Amino acid sequence: MDGAVNREKLFSDLRALVEDARSLVKASTEEVKEKTRDAWDRMRQGAEKIREYWSGAEETLTQKTLETAKQTDKTIRERPYESLVVAFLAGLLLGIVVARK
Predict the structure, then answer these.
(1) ∠21-25-44 over CA atoms, to 5°?
(2) What range defines the domain where residue 62 resides?
(3) Which residues, in sequence order, are CB contacts of 83 under 8 Å at separation 6+?
(4) In total, how many domains does the chain have?
């Protein structure tokens, strides 16, 4: 009879252990889901900040590019011969550098 009691106690302890393991897995799964959700939220927020930053940077770059192009056009129109000499020399130097390689 003593063996039957020990066996019942063993099975009872095993059931309790299995139940505790299930509870632990369930709690861990919920915690992982929550942390994953939080990580995705932070990533989305970061991506949104990057989009906002890039949008502003792109607009600034476009404006600076247009201003530079206008200034270059103005300089070429005011000094056409000097501009031709500078362009010729730049092309000559570039040709020499490329020819050496």
Answers:
(1) 170
(2) 2-100
(3) 75, 76
(4) 1
